[in-house]
Amino acid sequence: MPYGFAEKLFDKVPVGTRVIIAPNHAEPVAFSHPALFEPDAKALAAASDRAATLEREAAAAATAADQAKSAAATAAHDAAPLTASVRKLERLKSRADAELASAEKALAAAKTDEAKARAEDLKQKAAAKVAELQSELDTANADPKLEAAASAQAAAKAVETKRADAAKAAHEAKLALEPVSVFISRKTQRLYVRRGFDSTLEVPITIRNPDKPIGTHVFTAVARSDAGLRWTAVTIDNGDSAKDALDRITIPQDVLAKIGPTVLPRSSLIVSDEPLNRETNYRTEFVVVLNNQPQGGLAMRAHPTDVVARRNSRDDNNFGSGGWRGWGSPYGYGRQDGYGRQGGGNYYYQQPQGYYSQPQSWW
Q1: What pTM did the predictor assign?
Q2: For 211, phi and psi rounded to 5 degrees?
Q3: What burial letters (b/e) apply to 298-326, b meaning 16+ CB within 10 Å?
Q4: Is the separation of the CB atoms in 35 and 263 below 8 Å?
Q5: Cα distance between residue 326 and residue 335, in whole Å
Q6: Do 11 and 69 lie in a common domain?
Q7: Hey, is 62 helix, strand or coil?
Q8: pLDDT tens-digit series, residues 150-182
């Protein structure tokens, strides 16, 4: 892909747009099939209500955690002098215990009456010192301020655990309202699910005639319809037709129950002979590359610093910290917002120039 064109494409594609890069002309066509996910209005409404409820609970848990943390800090500050005193007494007590042990050892080893008397005197003094320090330590540890600080710290830890659990639940509920991306690989015989770049599910899948090529097909939910969703299909690689490819796949019912009811426009199902590319990560959509085509920068990835693209001002609202533009491409991978981003508002493609200068026939 010529660098100039790649830069323009990168700049114009908003977050969530799916771009398909194919070796030959490929055009989306209207498509329907029983295997394609269909939403359920009641499930969507319930998911929305659940997300709102969990978000409120997460906010309340965060407030409670902040309050508990503040209370623990105040209690610890009030108890700081006592804490320092306890630590000092513990060090002195440790030394006294060592002196007592040494005195007992010397007494056991004494041979003469004079040596025994001297060792006994040292032992008694050491024992008295140990007892005195233990008494002071017990008194200090019993101070209400220390007990309050310990109790506040334990309460803060418990509330923080609840906050983390509530935040996780709210995040997962929010993801259920994002378009879902599903990838099925004949190579690995597995089904992968992502929502909002988060990997949410990976399960084995049954594909009839698993040794026979199935091709690469991208099914995209483009809009709502009276029946549920309107889908398109794009076939990129040789193999079965889009219909025959879906006919060969059996998706487990429990997986369908998790995905189907809350599927939204912009959701996708990608079926391919290929496995996921190793560059699939938490900042990408599915990265799948056809093994019968040039791999370009995907195979030659280095760490150059001479390929830089300028970011214009209208991208400001879309820039995240290390986020990806989110192309779901079965052939290449998507925008990398902030990937290798430097000061001054620039971002780096982090690819060798050759990635954008592949033969025209590749695209």
Answers
A1: 0.62
A2: -85, -10
A3: beeeeeeeebeeebeeebeeeeeeebbbb
A4: no
A5: 6
A6: no
A7: helix
A8: 999 999 999 999 999 999 999 989 988 889 999
